[in-house]
Protein backbone atom coordinates (compact mmCIF):
# COMPACT_ATOMS: atom_id res chain seq x y z
CA UNK A 1 0.00 0.00 0.00
CA UNK A 2 1.28 3.48 -0.84
CA UNK A 3 2.09 6.04 1.76
CA UNK A 4 -0.29 8.98 2.04
CA UNK A 5 2.15 11.33 0.31
CA UNK A 6 2.90 9.16 -2.74
CA UNK A 7 -0.76 8.25 -3.09
CA UNK A 8 -1.75 11.90 -2.95
CA UNK A 9 0.72 12.97 -5.64
CA UNK A 10 0.15 9.98 -7.90
CA UNK A 11 -3.63 10.14 -7.67
CA UNK A 12 -3.71 13.86 -8.32
CA UNK A 13 -1.58 13.63 -11.44
CA UNK A 14 -3.41 10.57 -12.76
CA UNK A 15 -6.83 12.16 -12.44
CA UNK A 16 -5.73 15.47 -13.93
CA UNK A 17 -4.15 13.79 -16.94
CA UNK A 18 -7.12 11.51 -17.48
CA UNK A 19 -5.02 9.00 -19.36
CA UNK A 20 -5.85 5.48 -20.43
CA UNK A 21 -5.17 3.95 -17.01
CA UNK A 22 -7.73 3.41 -14.29
CA UNK A 23 -7.72 5.40 -11.08
CA UNK A 24 -9.90 5.76 -7.99
CA UNK A 25 -9.16 8.81 -5.89
CA UNK A 26 -10.67 10.13 -2.68
CA UNK A 27 -10.64 13.85 -1.88
CA UNK A 28 -10.60 14.47 1.86
CA UNK A 29 -9.67 16.95 4.58
CA UNK A 30 -8.06 16.08 7.93
CA UNK A 31 -10.68 18.05 9.89
CA UNK A 32 -13.65 16.29 8.22
CA UNK A 33 -15.35 13.69 10.52
CA UNK A 34 -16.82 11.79 7.56
CA UNK A 35 -13.36 11.59 5.99
CA UNK A 36 -11.92 10.25 9.23
CA UNK A 37 -14.58 7.54 9.32
CA UNK A 38 -13.87 6.63 5.70
CA UNK A 39 -10.10 6.36 6.11
CA UNK A 40 -9.93 2.75 7.45
CA UNK A 41 -12.25 1.49 4.69
CA UNK A 42 -10.32 3.35 2.00
CA UNK A 43 -6.97 2.05 3.23
CA UNK A 44 -8.33 -1.51 3.23
CA UNK A 45 -9.62 -0.95 -0.29
CA UNK A 46 -6.19 0.36 -1.35
CA UNK A 47 -4.67 -3.03 -0.51
CA UNK A 48 -6.71 -4.47 -3.40
CA UNK A 49 -5.42 -1.97 -5.92
CA UNK A 50 -2.88 -4.30 -7.52
CA UNK A 51 -5.38 -7.16 -7.81
CA UNK A 52 -8.02 -4.88 -9.32
CA UNK A 53 -5.46 -3.21 -11.60
CA UNK A 54 -6.49 0.23 -10.43
CA UNK A 55 -4.45 3.08 -8.99
CA UNK A 56 -6.05 3.87 -5.62
CA UNK A 57 -5.09 7.18 -4.06
CA UNK A 58 -6.22 9.95 -1.76
CA UNK A 59 -5.67 13.71 -1.91
CA UNK A 60 -5.73 16.23 0.93
CA UNK A 61 -7.60 19.23 -0.50
CA UNK A 62 -6.17 21.50 2.20
CA UNK A 63 -2.71 20.95 0.70
CA UNK A 64 -3.90 21.14 -2.91
CA UNK A 65 -6.74 23.71 -2.94
CA UNK A 66 -6.66 23.98 -6.72
CA UNK A 67 -8.28 20.55 -6.96
CA UNK A 68 -11.42 21.87 -5.26
CA UNK A 69 -11.98 24.13 -8.24
CA UNK A 70 -10.79 21.65 -10.85
CA UNK A 71 -13.22 18.94 -9.67
CA UNK A 72 -15.98 21.21 -8.26
CA UNK A 73 -15.72 19.64 -4.81
CA UNK A 74 -18.68 20.83 -2.74
CA UNK A 75 -18.73 18.02 -0.17
CA UNK A 76 -16.19 15.81 1.57
CA UNK A 77 -15.18 13.12 1.09
CA UNK A 78 -15.54 13.05 -2.71
CA UNK A 79 -14.57 9.95 -4.68
CA UNK A 80 -13.88 9.87 -8.41
CA UNK A 81 -13.32 6.95 -10.76
CA UNK A 82 -11.31 7.52 -13.93
CA UNK A 83 -11.15 5.16 -16.89
CA UNK A 84 -9.94 6.01 -20.42
CA UNK A 85 -10.12 9.73 -19.73
CA UNK A 86 -13.73 9.59 -18.46
CA UNK A 87 -14.47 10.74 -14.91
CA UNK A 88 -17.34 9.43 -12.82
CA UNK A 89 -18.29 10.45 -9.32
CA UNK A 90 -18.95 7.62 -6.89
CA UNK A 91 -21.95 8.22 -4.62
CA UNK A 92 -22.65 4.72 -3.28
CA UNK A 93 -22.02 3.10 0.12
CA UNK A 94 -18.56 3.72 1.53
CA UNK A 95 -17.31 0.31 2.56
CA UNK A 96 -14.39 -1.73 1.28
CA UNK A 97 -16.61 -4.39 -0.28
CA UNK A 98 -18.74 -1.79 -2.04
CA UNK A 99 -15.63 -0.15 -3.49
CA UNK A 100 -14.31 -3.52 -4.67
CA UNK A 101 -17.62 -4.46 -6.29
CA UNK A 102 -17.84 -1.05 -7.93
CA UNK A 103 -14.57 -1.75 -9.74
CA UNK A 104 -14.63 -5.53 -10.23
CA UNK A 105 -18.30 -5.73 -11.29
CA UNK A 106 -17.87 -2.64 -13.49
CA UNK A 107 -20.70 -0.84 -11.75
CA UNK A 108 -19.06 2.41 -12.81
CA UNK A 109 -20.44 1.88 -16.31
CA UNK A 110 -23.94 2.68 -15.03
CA UNK A 111 -22.85 6.18 -13.97
CA UNK A 112 -22.95 9.04 -16.45
CA UNK A 113 -19.43 10.41 -16.97
CA UNK A 114 -18.64 14.03 -16.24
CA UNK A 115 -19.13 16.29 -19.25
CA UNK A 116 -15.97 17.20 -21.13
CA UNK A 117 -16.74 20.86 -20.41
CA UNK A 118 -16.45 20.17 -16.69
CA UNK A 119 -13.65 17.62 -16.84
CA UNK A 120 -10.56 18.39 -14.75
CA UNK A 121 -8.45 18.85 -17.87
CA UNK A 122 -10.79 21.34 -19.57
CA UNK A 123 -9.98 25.03 -19.94
CA UNK A 124 -12.93 25.97 -17.72
CA UNK A 125 -11.87 23.77 -14.81
CA UNK A 126 -8.22 24.74 -15.23
CA UNK A 127 -9.29 28.38 -14.89
CA UNK A 128 -11.31 27.55 -11.79
CA UNK A 129 -8.31 25.78 -10.31
CA UNK A 130 -6.14 28.84 -10.98
CA UNK A 131 -8.68 31.06 -9.20
CA UNK A 132 -8.70 28.77 -6.17
CA UNK A 133 -4.91 28.81 -6.05
CA UNK A 134 -4.91 32.60 -6.38
CA UNK A 135 -7.34 32.92 -3.47
CA UNK A 136 -5.13 30.73 -1.29
CA UNK A 137 -2.08 32.79 -2.27
CA UNK A 138 -3.89 36.00 -1.30
CA UNK A 139 -4.85 34.45 2.03
CA UNK A 140 -1.24 33.42 2.66
CA UNK A 141 -0.04 36.95 1.89
CA UNK A 142 -2.71 38.41 4.17
CA UNK A 143 -1.56 36.21 7.06
CA UNK A 144 2.06 37.14 6.34
CA UNK A 145 1.29 40.86 6.47
CA UNK A 146 -0.61 40.54 9.75
CA UNK A 147 1.38 37.91 11.65
CA UNK A 148 4.94 38.37 10.40
CA UNK A 149 5.08 42.06 9.45
CA UNK A 150 2.67 43.20 12.16
CA UNK A 151 0.43 45.24 9.86
CA UNK A 152 -3.12 45.96 11.03
CA UNK A 153 -5.96 44.33 9.16
CA UNK A 154 -6.91 47.58 7.43
CA UNK A 155 -3.28 47.98 6.36
CA UNK A 156 -3.32 44.59 4.67
CA UNK A 157 -6.59 45.47 2.92
CA UNK A 158 -5.04 48.74 1.75
CA UNK A 159 -2.09 46.90 0.22
CA UNK A 160 -4.42 44.58 -1.70
CA UNK A 161 -6.59 47.52 -2.81
CA UNK A 162 -3.57 49.38 -4.20
CA UNK A 163 -2.30 46.21 -5.86
CA UNK A 164 -5.72 45.68 -7.45
CA UNK A 165 -5.81 49.25 -8.79
CA UNK A 166 -2.28 48.99 -10.15
CA UNK A 167 -2.91 45.64 -11.83
CA UNK A 168 -6.14 47.01 -13.31
CA UNK A 169 -4.32 50.00 -14.78
CA UNK A 170 -1.59 47.82 -16.25
CA UNK A 171 -4.14 45.40 -17.68
CA UNK A 172 -6.10 48.28 -19.21
CA UNK A 173 -2.98 49.71 -20.83
CA UNK A 174 -2.09 46.30 -22.25
CA UNK A 175 -5.60 45.86 -23.68
CA UNK A 176 -5.49 49.31 -25.29
CA UNK A 177 -2.08 48.57 -26.79
CA UNK A 178 -3.23 45.23 -28.20
CA UNK A 179 -6.47 46.72 -29.56
CA UNK A 180 -4.54 49.56 -31.20
CA UNK A 181 -2.16 47.07 -32.83
CA UNK A 182 -4.91 44.79 -34.10
CA UNK A 183 -7.36 47.50 -35.15
CA UNK A 184 -5.41 50.72 -35.74
CA UNK A 185 -7.56 53.82 -36.05
CA UNK A 186 -7.74 55.46 -39.48
CA UNK A 187 -6.35 58.96 -39.66
CA UNK A 188 -8.59 61.46 -41.39
CA UNK A 189 -7.05 63.64 -44.05
CA UNK A 190 -7.60 67.38 -43.60
CA UNK A 191 -10.24 68.88 -45.87
CA UNK A 192 -8.70 71.02 -48.66
CA UNK A 193 -9.51 74.72 -48.61
CA UNK A 194 -11.67 75.96 -51.49
CA UNK A 195 -9.81 77.71 -54.28
CA UNK A 196 -9.80 81.51 -54.53
CA UNK A 197 -12.05 81.63 -57.60
CA UNK A 198 -14.85 79.93 -55.70
CA UNK A 199 -14.38 82.33 -52.83
CA UNK A 200 -14.68 85.39 -55.16
CA UNK A 201 -17.93 84.10 -56.58
From TrEMBL:
Catalytic activity, reaction form: Catalyzes the rearrangement of -S-S- bonds in proteins
Location within or outside the cell: Endoplasmic reticulum membrane; Mitochondrion membrane; Secreted
Organism superkingdom: Eukaryota
Pfam families: Thioredoxin (PF00085)
GO molecular function: disulfide oxidoreductase activity; protein disulfide isomerase activity
Domain Thioredoxin, first and last residues per copy: 28-104
Biased composition (Basic and acidic residues): 1-11
Any Gene Ontology biological process: negative regulation of platelet aggregation
Gene Ontology cellular component list: endoplasmic reticulum membrane; extracellular region; mitochondrial membrane
Keywords: Disulfide bond, Electron transport, Endoplasmic reticulum, Isomerase, Lipoprotein, Membrane, Mitochondrion, Palmitate, Phosphoprotein, Redox-active center, Secreted, Signal, Transmembrane, Transmembrane helix, Transport
Segments crossing the lipid bilayer: 117-138, 158-179
Membrane topology (UniProt): Single-pass type I membrane protein
Region entry Disordered, spans: 1-21
Enzyme Commission (EC) number: 5.3.4.1
Subunit structure, interactors included: Interacts with ATP2A2.
Protein name, UniProt field: Thioredoxin-related transmembrane protein 1
Organism in which the protein naturally occurs: Camelus dromedarius (Dromedary)
Amino acid sequence: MRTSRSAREGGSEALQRGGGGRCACCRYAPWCPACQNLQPEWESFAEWGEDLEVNIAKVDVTEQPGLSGRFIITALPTIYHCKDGEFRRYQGPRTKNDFINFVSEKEWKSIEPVSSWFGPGSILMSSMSALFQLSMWIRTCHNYFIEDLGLPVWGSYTVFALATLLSGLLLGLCMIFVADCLCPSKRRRPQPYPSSKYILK
